[in-house]
Amino acid sequence: MKAVLLCSGLARRMNGKVKPLIRVGGREILYRSMKLLERHGIQEFTVVVNETNREEIESFLRKNGFNFDVVINDAPERGNGYSLFLAKDRVSGRFILAMGDHIFGDGFVEKAVKGVGVVCDRNPRFIDPDEATKVRVEEGRVAEIGKKLEHYDCFDTGFFVLDSSVFEIAERLAKEREVVELSDVIRDAKPPVTFVDGELWMDVDTPEDVRKAEKALFRESGKGMGDGFISRHVNRKVSTRISRILADRISPNHATVISFAAGIISSLLIFVSIPLAGVMYQISSILDGIDGEIARVTMRSSRIGGVVDSVLDRIVDFLFLSTLAVATLSAGVEFFIAFLAVFGSFMVSYISERYRGEFSEGFYRRFSVLVPGKRDERIFITMIFSLLYPAVDTLHLFIFIAVLTNLRVAEMLLRLVKSCSYISYQYTT
Amino acid sequence: MKAVLLCSGLARRMNGKVKPLIRVGGREILYRSMKLLERHGIQEFTVVVNETNREEIESFLRKNGFNFDVVINDAPERGNGYSLFLAKDRVSGRFILAMGDHIFGDGFVEKAVKGVGVVCDRNPRFIDPDEATKVRVEEGRVAEIGKKLEHYDCFDTGFFVLDSSVFEIAERLAKEREVVELSDVIRDAKPPVTFVDGELWMDVDTPEDVRKAEKALFRESGKGMGDGFISRHVNRKVSTRISRILADRISPNHATVISFAAGIISSLLIFVSIPLAGVMYQISSILDGIDGEIARVTMRSSRIGGVVDSVLDRIVDFLFLSTLAVATLSAGVEFFIAFLAVFGSFMVSYISERYRGEFSEGFYRRFSVLVPGKRDERIFITMIFSLLYPAVDTLHLFIFIAVLTNLRVAEMLLRLVKSCSYISYQYTT
């Protein structure tokens, strides 16, 4: 499938920039859309531009190595339905049509490319309903479309999965009248409607919109990363805010180094003050999210970066727990419990990684685990105990972590073995 | 691609069994070939049988759920070239032809299915050259084929990748003469030759051949598993012999339980005698190979079995090292070194698994690591130190393991980070 991107609108420039080339979260709006489309299987693009923005957009497309061709609309005042019509000879069969000045989130594009017809949202979270184009749906198809509808079911997201038959309608309308809006074409074509609700999509008209979009992108960047309870409800709320501030200033790799350094410092602080060390450990846990968030929002995530980040997490956890053990424990049996805590902490990560290595699928996608004990949870518990020190002995922390993580390990192993005997059964006829 | 399997030979039965249905390494010869072909992309089979073995083979094929059709050769005395001719209407285009009474190894099939023409071996390791069919090659094609060639380049493996044009030759020959051997068809067709050298393939004629094939299968079952030095040169040599004896008696799961138990016992023996515990630890390391070997030879390997096995390895290693630490160390700093040894031991596995989870490709396929420290190597070193106890203090062992494994971890991390900056560079234009 090919995608047609409409960038020929006559909208005033914002901050002196062509609208599709405005940077949001460190990347041009058009870059975001095209990269997301590429990620979800669309490799060829037809970009409709106008005479005034042509040069800038073409040089942007060339610089970023996209597989594109350009159509020039020399009468942009005739509307974006007319722009669509001009792309007529560039696509055949099914194609995607998207507004060049809209921000789409990864989750949105993932669902939308699988849709058909007009992609609509019944629960838009980032737009002004008064300004947006509404759609009334009847029997799964567009019954009416426009900004001023009184009765409507959903909002037009600016993302369509059409087939080349719409060009005939666009052509007819272009012959009949001067201005042809996209909604005019859709009104006549009556395509099916696909609902993609509550995901990130919005058009960007003002600097205020840019800020809103960035906020939404950073909030989205912490999702679906297999976070534990503390991460979802505490760490991400803080880290995504910090990420937003730092995104333009530091690279993901810098953020990795900073959070690693914070983790190492927390281990050293054990010799100064255990409560302080615990707080620093929790701070490093919050900072740990930033590299990934910045990388995802600025579309620079690298998979090796993710691997290195995990390894550094293991090093920080090891250093903190073993330093705390050596600094506060004495008897051999106490050390055995500390060993158990270190072991359990590792195994929680190890099992899920070993599983993913074998099945190329996340452990937690297949199995749900009841016992807590993910990294964010362990670190938070460690901080709580450290704040109670010396009233509460660190041995209690080690017992707590050892029991919790090893219970979780036992649960994970049990779920594996259960599914294992099932699978073995399939093989041994 | 489809595969045609010739099972219509008039060979005497062996031990009262139809030859393709003789069990070798716990599985029928035909089952092995068909499962390996399935594993490498061939999903449909045409099986040529004769009147006498038809019923047995059909019920075998049905029981195992293969996607097959059967051709009956009611004149098997006319040779296997005639059998091939009878499959004429069942295949079109390229197809695989294989002897139903040949044992093929996984490595052989993997390469052979990608070949074209007659798959030949210039360096056969498992057959009697006097008995085998020889091939003389000229300009990449068969120049002469037969058992009695004086000058030849390689041996016919009984595995072919042909196209349907051979059927015309087979048909013509079947009209001209009574007996048509496959070599007669090949001699006329002059197909290309693909060399697959030194891999496992052999025909099975006698109980002696069965033993030979099993020996070869077990030897092959320890290969390509990412073994370290000790495993390749010591452990596998012992374990594959034990596996051969136990294969009919125990399941892979039983073997997992036995080696896990041996590992746990080795940790408990620390309280009795450290040299004894070290020897038991090394024995458990040898036994650790058996479950996988039996599973692979009997074609019952399950991927979850592999995951569980890895997790149990981590538990055994943890228990041994931490018990040894608690039983023999005293000062806090000593424990820190023990923590480092446990940590490094884990991280060696963790990094490679984390990498594989991300890239669905083995770490060691992409990076070569110089510093030793794989599990088999660590355990062997541990045994050596334990035999020197109490003359050599266990602290020396922990220092040695800590340094070795953490150096290896540092090397692995370095290789990751190096490739990381390269990859980041690709993203940040």
List the topology elements.
Two copies of one chain form a homodimer.
Chain A: E1 2-6, E2 23-24, E3 27-28, H1 29-39, E4 44-50, H2 54-63, E5 68-73, H3 80-86, E6 94-99, E7 102-104, H4 106-112, E8 117-121, E9 134-138, E10 141-146, E11 154-163, H5 165-176, H6 182-189, E12 193-195, E13 201-203, H7 207-221, H8 229-246, H9 252-269, H10 274-287, H11 290-297, H12 303-328, H13 332-359, H14 363-366, H15 375-387, H16 394-427
Parallel strand pairs in A: 1-4, 1-6, 4-5, 8-12
Antiparallel strand pairs in A: 2-3, 6-11, 7-13, 8-11, 9-10, 9-11
Descriptive tags:
homodimer; 429 residues; alpha/beta; Spore Coat Polysaccharide Biosynthesis Protein SpsA, Chain A; Four Helix Bundle (Hemerythrin (Met), subunit A); 2 domains; 9-stranded mixed sheet; two-stranded antiparallel ribbon; 16 helices; 13 strands; 54% helix
**Would you count the extended β strands of chain A for me?**
13
Structural class of chain A: alpha/beta
C-alpha geometry of chain A:
elongated
Average pLDDT score of chain A: 92
CATH class of the largest domain in chain A, named Mainly Alpha
Helix content of chain A: 40-55%
Order of helices and strands of chain A: EEEHEHEHEEHEEEEHHEEHHHHHHHHHH
Count of helical segments of chain A? 16
CATH architecture of the largest domain in chain A: Up-down Bundle
Describe the sheet with the most strands of chain A: 9 strands, mixed
Largest interface: pair, residues per side: A-B, 62 and 61 residues
- For the record, the count of structural domains of chain A works out to 2
Strand content of chain A: 5-15%
